[in-house]
Structure formats: C-alpha cells, structure tokens
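anyone seen this seq b4? input:
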Amino acid sequence: MVFGIDKVLSGIVKYHQTVRNGMVEQFRRVRDNPVPSVLMFTCMDSRMIPSRFTQSDVGEMFIVRNAGVLIPHHKYYGNDATITTEPGALELACVINAVQDIIVCGHSDCKAMNLLQSLKEDKSCEVKNFHDSPLRSWVWRYGGDSYTHFETMLRAEKNRLVFKEGNHAHEAVIDPRNQFSIADKFSQVSTLHQLENITSYPFMQRLVDGGLVRLHAMWFDIYTGNIFYFSKPHKSFIEITEENWDDFLDEKEREALNKQVKFGMRQNLMT
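predicted toks r here
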C-alpha cells in the first residue's frame, strides 16, 4: 500500500494518464470567467471529499476547510484579534463574486468536535493550558458558543433549540429519532450554529435578510455515506434522496422570496 508523498506523486502520474485532458478542457472553459455559485464550509477531515459527494466540477464551488467546520463570530474580528480566513471567504464569495448559496457541512465522528467536547467536560481545562496547542486553542475559542448551544439542548425538552439567522429565528429538533451518538448530536448543533455566526457579520446579515444569499446546513454520515439537509419546515436534518431533493430547493426559494418581499417593504418604509 502506498502512503504519504509516494501516494501523492503516483496519483499525479495517474492523473496525467487518465483525467488530465478532460480537466484541462474544463480549465480552458472557465479560465477567464469562472462563475462559482456556491460557497461551502466543511471540515478538513481526510474522509470528507466535498467535490466528490456533490459531483462538482472545476470553477463551480468555493470550498473552505478547517478543523471542526468553525466560522468565527464577528465579535472575534477586529484590530486586536487574530484575522482568520473564513470572513474573508464570505466577502470574496458573496460580495465580490455574488454567490447566492452558502453551505455549512458537518459530519459524523468529527475529531475536532470530539476534542472540544472532551475539553469542555474536563473541568480542569483552562485556556492558558493551550499555548502549546493551536488546535485546542482554535476549537476552544471559536467552538465554545456551539458547545453552549449543545448544553442548552441537553437540558431542553426533546432536544429543541432556537437558532437565529440575521433577523430571522427558527426552531431545530436535534436527532428526533435518536439515531446518532451524543458526539454526533453536538456536531449537528455546531453545524447549525455556524449559520448564526455567518450572519453576525453586518454585510452578511444584509444579504441574508434581503434574500440575496441563502444559507444551508448539511451533515454527512461518513459511515453510511448518507447526507442530510436541515429543513426548517421539518425542524430537523432530513436525509437527501432522489424523492425529496427538489422539495428542499422549493423550500429555500420560498424562504428567499419571502425575505426579499419583507426586505423591500422595510426599505420602502424607511424611504
């Protein structure tokens, strides 16, 4: 079995022998005017291959990957804070390139979320203990609010939570059939919480409230290959199938249209 750089180099040779010509033709088509239509945030976990499970081609999607699928809240942004790439990606995609769909895709058995959960459950942990661990510092600082939501869920009746996206709030019931582990429930909570963090940036709140950008939460079960979509009418993650995928499209189109109408009414009242 080939590992490490041997695997990479042998893969490049195979790429030259098989798919290179087809990809070069795709590069030619989008070289001067790529029009990506989706920004996806997902985990850097090596088991997650978003371009494969979405069947996306060259130039179709911006992809940002990090440990735990975390998008820092706007409160961490400023002159005295560490600047991360995620808000820059939001601006690049949605302001400069007018991307209308943002997907946050979490997954089962997320090692970063598992780490954060173990740190939070260890009452002896303090931030000062993490100066030698960038990973622990990252998940502790930017995942802490997600864990607060998760603790609220554990105390709530039937795993019910309320999430806010801009000026709009919606209810979520986490794993109503009790199919997944506690750790996976936390991963789903965190996935939804990242949509809140996206709209914490004023420029994103305006776009989302105006119906110009649509937010989507997905969750990938790496053990079954099933992909789930968070449906606001159902208030839960629903498995995406051939029978229901267009229902999710209709749902988001109606939501965006309603926001555009309400936003237009608010603008008219202000003028």
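The chain has a mean pLDDT of 90. The first strand starts at residue 38 and ends at 43. kinda curious what u guys think
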